[in-house]
Design brief:
It is built from 14 helices and 15 strands. With 467 residues, it is α/β, with parallel strands linked by helices.
Length: 467
């Protein structure tokens, strides 16, 4: 539990917010399509919170930003000072209102201001700030506007600076875009003026504090038990796997689940732009890229990390996402004895995943003929897993595809399992289809058998799809 969470619990032990049981103030979620400023209510406690905030800063001052101060000690001091400042304030407040003011001021001091309640809500998967007075959240795959807001552009910029400073990054006019992460691994992207024309933009993709397991994905309908068994066999059998899909399709979540199948006695090196993978094995070495400094030096790219990882005696190399010339180094690693590697990339289909990889290899500025690149891909990659975010908000694996080899200049693919879109949708608009076997036996079954991994033939039995 984070510091601000514990402080909020302590603040609300004696009172509950009138808007939601348990004292966690939940902002109004407006119907989709309503104007962002229509019906926005004025915070009746704005003046009290500003007075309490100033009083807290006056009493504690630099202690709030002392990196050497123990978190529990800082929490205790903030709690005691908040109560004292609130008692000194002459504004008449109920017990519930006093608890609310204390929590929101604590969120501002120790957390992320108006975003903190949404960061604490486990049902919210994404927070989108389109300006200081426009915030949207994603819940159950649907996007809703909420009434919370920052006091102004400066307030939003302070929150962004606080987030990126924690991971040693910066965002300003000379570097107006940044990728960062929260302490729990949630992914953060920020864009500030002059690139963002109407004010700073902030997007936070939350990750569950307790990572999803394969049973969770089966329960969500992302995959079937048979597909989970197949993917587990492929990971344990050290096949090289590429997970493709669009933005927000759940690629990283699936990568986390596949990584959980790696035996605990293997040495794993993870490489990411912003560290977000949540591996449970003990023998894991985590590497994170670093942007250039103000002078344009000291940059460490994904490609640098991939090359360096080959000297770290890895059994597995797991790359959070391939998006540039690092694709060439990844293919070379897969072709030089580092079997069992896994990565993700953005694509629209399994075939498109190969086209994207080919383009990214060319970005390495190495003069290789097209056929040589494709031979490298056909030799290195064993399995393509494609994931899609459907219109009903669910995230489903739609293709399990084997890379068979080359026929002329074309890489041949074999669809092992496909999502049945022809099953249609139900009354609520949810897709009825599931992932079905095509009845075709992939060649990697023999490879897995040679490595002591047996797969039941029933897994590839033809299933009748809805017509």
């Amino acid at each position: 539990m984070s510091l601000s969470d514990r402080l909020a619990q302590r603040m609300t032990q004696s009172a509950s917010s009138p808007e939601q049981p348990g004292g966690t103030h939940r902002r109004l979620e407006q119907p989709a399509g309503q104007s962002r400023r229509a019906g926005r209510t004025v915070d009746p406690f704005a003046g009290v919170k500003r007075s309490v905030h100033e009083g807290l800063l006056e009493v504690l001052g630099p202690k709030l930003y002392d990196a050497h101060l123990d978190q529990s000690e800082l929490e205790l001091q903030v709690t005691q000072t908040l109560q004292a400042v609130l008692q000194r304030d002459e504004t008449p407040l109920t017990v519930a209102d006093r608890a609310r003011v204390a929590q929101e001021v604590a969120d501002e001091i120790l957390g992320h201001g108006p975003l903190e309640p949404y960061l604490r809500d486990p049902d919210i998967s994404e927070i989108m700030v389109n300006g200081h007075d426009q915030i949207y959240i994603e819940r159950d795959g649907r996007i809703y506007p909420v009434s919370a807001a920052f006091t102004g552009e400066a307030h939003l910029r302070r929150t962004i600076d606080k987030i990126v400073a924690r991971v040693g990054r910066r965002v300003d006019e000379s570097s107006p875009m940044v990728d960062a992460r929260l302490p729990d691994g949630s992914r953060v992207n920020a864009v500030v003026p002059p690139v963002a024309l109407d004010g700073s933009l902030l997007t936070i993709r939350k990750f569950a504090a307790d990572p999803f397991t394969v049973n969770d994905l089966i329960g969500f309908g992302t995959m079937t038990p048979e597909v989970a068994e197949l993917l587990q066999a492929c990971v344990r059998g050290r096949l090289n796997i590429v997970i493709g899909g669009g933005t927000g399709s759940g690629k990283t979540t699936t990568l986390n689940v596949l990584s959980s199948f790696v035996p605990p006695d293997e040495r794993i090196v993870t490489i990411e732009d912003a560290a977000e993978l949540q591996l449970r094995q003990e023998h894991v070495l985590r590497l994170e890229s670093r942007p250039a400094s103000l002078e344009g030096t000291a940059q460490v790219t994904i490609r640098d990390l991939v090359r360096n990882s080959l000297r770290m005696r890895p059994d597995r190399i797991i790359i959070g996402e391939i998006r540039d010339g690092a694709a060439l180094d990844m293919l070379q690693a897969m072709n030089t004895g580092h079997d069992g590697s896994v990565t993700t990339l953005h694509s629209n289909s399994p075939r498109d995943s190969l086209a994207r990889l080919e383009t990214m290899v060319l970005m390495a500025e190495v003069n290789l003929p097209q056929r040589a690149i494709r031979e490298q891909m056909a030799s290195a990659i064993d399995l393509l897993v494609h994931q899609t975010r459907l219109k009903d908000g669910t995230r489903r694996i739609t293709h399990i595809t084997e890379v068979e080899g080359m026929e002329g200049d074309v890489i041949t693919l074999l669809d092992v399992s496909l999502f049945d879109f022809r099953a249609g949708v139900d009354e609520a608009g949810r897709f009825r289809g599931t992932l079905h076997s095509t009845g075709l036996r992939p060649r990697f079954v023999d490879t897995l058998a040679d490595r002591g991994i047996a797969i039941s033939p029933r897994m590839f039995g033809a299933e009748r799809l809805t017509r």
